[in-house]
């Protein structure tokens, strides 16, 4: 998606989109997103991450007119078992299944937010880089939408390439991330794309969400948003 200022912004399925930090969008970018039908932003970052940086564009309150922003983190920062397995944040599809196992209520919360936004229009979900936390949820959305293994793997790979290009032009945000040239990136993405598919196919997204508290009505709303059939 070419919304002005947006980093790593992609269509996922139906009325669901994904991207990196929303603070990168300019006022013009928000107007473009609104014109494209976006009415709800689901932020899957932890609350402390949701802040403007000095390098971010200044955006007036008017730019948000008609938009709802919902906070639905995918993890609990500092959770001892999570950090033991994944480190300080999720940055590899190899750990998606651990995230889903440790924080089922968090992932249900994300899909509850998607359901809440479904009646308003299209929805953007975003994390910081637009790669792993949003990638985990995007893979689940694609699974609900009936996407192929190839499409799900490529959804992850294009987002990983997108943020890697950002690191090339702007530098990484900290020392846990770095720009990779294609010789390093290509085999990594081959493995990680396959890991995303393995995660989502083993998960059984519909069953997982219903088992952990998402109502059938909420699931129907998400399925409608994704362009899929209802759960009944």
Summarize the structure in words.
The radius of gyration is 17 Å and the shape is globular. Strands 1-2-5-3-4 form a 5-stranded mixed sheet. With 232 residues, it is α/β, with parallel strands linked by helices. The longest helix is centred in the C-terminal third of the chain and has 22 residues, at 149-170. 49% of the residues lie in helices and 10% in strands. A hairpin with a 2-residue loop joins β1 (10-13) and β2. α4 crosses α9 (216-226), α5 runs antiparallel to α6 and α6 packs across α7. It has one domain (10-222): Protein-Tyrosine Phosphatase, Chain A (Alpha-Beta Complex), CATH 3.90.190. GO terms for molecular function: phosphoprotein phosphatase activity. Residues 105-140 form the Tyrosine specific protein phosphatases domain. This is Tyrosine specific protein phosphatases domain-containing protein.
Topology readout:
Elements: E1 10-13, E2 16-19, H1 27-35, E3 38-43, E4 68-71, H2 80-86, H3 96-102, H4 104-118, E5 122-126, H5 133-145, H6 149-170, H7 182-203, H8 205-211, H9 216-226
Parallel strand pairs: 2-5, 3-4, 3-5
Antiparallel strand pairs: 1-2
Pfam families: Y_phosphatase3
Domain Tyrosine specific protein phosphatases: 105-140
InterPro entries: Prot-tyrosine_phosphatase-like, Tyr/Ser_Pase_IphP-type, Tyr_Pase_AS, Tyr_Pase_dom
